[in-house]
Design brief:
The chain has about 100 residues and is an all-alpha fold. The protein has one domain. It has 2 helices and no strands. The longest helix has about 80 residues. The N and C termini lie far apart (about 85 Å).
Length: about 100
């Protein structure tokens, strides 16, 4: 977000500062520290963004797995009903003989 702003702003140098040289050095050090921290934050943000993408796919996979489990349960119930129906049919046929 801040990249365009940071790139357009010139990096301060001791020559461009109208302040006491020791203050300029201190400001330059602070600037360098902040820039280094900013780069670290951006890298961490990229890593977290990638992890969130992975989490999204894990959620999708879990949802699909749950749906497949539900379908398997329904199929098992249907098979059991068919097997019970076949048993009754066999018993009924024996009685007719």
């Amino acid at each position: 977000m801040l990249d365009p702003l940071l790139r357009s702003a010139p990096t301060p140098t001791p020559d461009t500062c109208n302040e006491d040289p020791s203050e300029s050095v201190l400001l330059l050090r602070k600037h360098a520290t902040f820039m280094s921290e900013w780069e670290s934050v951006q890298e961490e943000s990229d890593v977290l963004r990638e992890e969130l993408k992975e989490d999204k796919w894990l959620t999708v996979f879990r949802t699909v797995t749950d749906q497949a489990d539900g379908m398997m349960s329904s199929l098992e119930k249907a098979i059991n009903r068919c097997q019970v129906g076949d048993r009754f049919h066999v018993v009924a046929m024996r009685r007719l003989d």
